[in-house]
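Quick check before the chapter quiz. The format below is the same one you will see on the exam, so make sure you can read both the input and the output lines.
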Amino acid sequence: MRTFRVIVAVAIAALVASTARAQRAGAAAAPEALLDKMTGRWVLTGTIGKQQTTHDVDVDWILNREYIRIHEVSREKNAAGGPEYEAWIHIAWDAKKSEYAVLWLDNTAVFTFAADGIGHAKPDGDRIPILFTDPDGGGIHTTFSYDRTTDTWSWTIDNVDKMGRVSSFAKVTLRRSTQRDTRGI
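Here is the expected output.
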């Protein structure tokens, strides 16, 4: 009888420990699970800088699923025939800080990889509210919001001056592309 009690106690302890581990793993995986919803091919439409625009956006995991890589290319062309806008955006989950870190590189200006140029975002349900700060106290607030019912993303970008005044810069929606990827990637 005593052996039976020991076996039952060990079984219960193992069950409790595995349940706790699974819950911790699930909580840690939630930020990455939201990023999973972003992977794929998208068409971005909306307003950027008071101009209607359409961009193609490809999103995938890279480097052993440590980073999400977003490649955004406008369909509008510049005078040389290249894309008017192009960006490479990388998002990583920093488990120690419980936040996303975002590196946004685009063809509008050179970025020298200063620490204040890295955006940070605390997860907020299906939203990733990113804050890029400037040394003068201003910055850029960019929010990626996922809509589970329509499987779409909305991105808003607001400029914030050093006095804290906010001005809208972009409001766009990303819908899954129906075009087949023929690039061979």
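If your answer matched, good. Residues 26 and 35 are 14 Å apart (CA to CA).
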